Here is the input.
Amino acid sequence: MKKRTLLTLLLVNVFFFFLKAQDVSIAYTNPDFLEVCDSTKFEVSLSANNVALENIEVTINFPKGIEYQIGSIINGSDLNVSNLQQPVFQTSDIAVAQTITLEFWAKATCEMVNEINAGRNFANSIKVNYTGGVNEVTTDLYEVETPFL
Here is the structure.
């Protein structure tokens, strides 16, 4: 009997964990083109699925050599930009079935050539914290090119 009760509690907890993770959907648009020593636009869309999202913080983890351009955020605000490779944004609350798209610019620093020459892959991690939950995704890989000299 104890095993059945324990199994039931475990399954209920797992179910609610996955249900809670579905409160917010995260979509993103990687840049079409990013060149060393240049900037480009990134987009992150947040959708409230089951509940309204409140007190939203979005953290972007850029790979080494890519830095957020302070003040470039649209539909949000800079909350903590002390580390330009890991900016934290704040956005307004999102009602159920609504979506908000954050747009911001980031620069591939000139030192990025070393990362390219080392064969590194480039992707961002996006973490969304909100009252009652958290969700995180990693973007697809994107290319950073060296300029023709």
